[in-house]
Write a structure and sequence with these properties.
The chain is mainly alpha-helical. It has helices at residues 11-46, 51-57, 66-98. The chain has one domain. The protein is 77% helix and 0% strand.
C-alpha cells in the first residue's frame, strides 16, 4: 500500500488501534451489563413470594405472571448486551487484520 503524505499518513495504523480500543470497551461493558442483567433475572426467581400472591398468580396465564415478566425482561436485555460484547470481540479480531 503506497504511503500518503500529509495528515492521512498514519490513518491506516490508527484504524487498527481505534478498532481494538472500541472493541475492548464494547466487550468489557457488554459482558458486565449482561452479567448484571442475568443476576437480576435469577434473583427474581430465587426469592420466595407471599403465599397469597402466589395463589392469585397461579390462576393467571404464564405470560401474565409477575415472576415470569421479571425474569424474561432481564434475560432478553442481558442477551442483547452479550451480543454487543460479541460485536466488540469481532472488532478486536478485525483490528488484527487491518494493522
Amino acid at each position: 500500500m503506497p504511503r500518503i503524505g500529509g495528515p492521512c499518513a498514519t490513518l491506516h495504523a490508527m484504524l487498527g488501534v481505534t478498532l481494538t480500543a472500541c472493541g475492548i470497551v464494547a466487550a468489557t461493558f457488554g459482558t458486565w451489563r449482561g452479567y448484571a442483567n442475568a443476576r437480576v433475572a435469577l434473583v427474581s426467581l430465587a426469592r420466595d413470594g407471599d403465599p397469597t400472591r402466589e395463589a392469585i398468580e397461579a390462576h393467571r396465564p404464564i405470560h401474565a405472571r409477575t415472576r415470569v415478566r421479571r425474569f424474561v425482561r432481564p434475560v432478553v436485555v442481558g442477551t442483547l448486551w452479550l451480543a454487543i460484547a460479541m460485536y466488540g470481540l469481532l472488532m478486536v479480531s478485525l483490528a488484527g487484520t487491518v494493522a
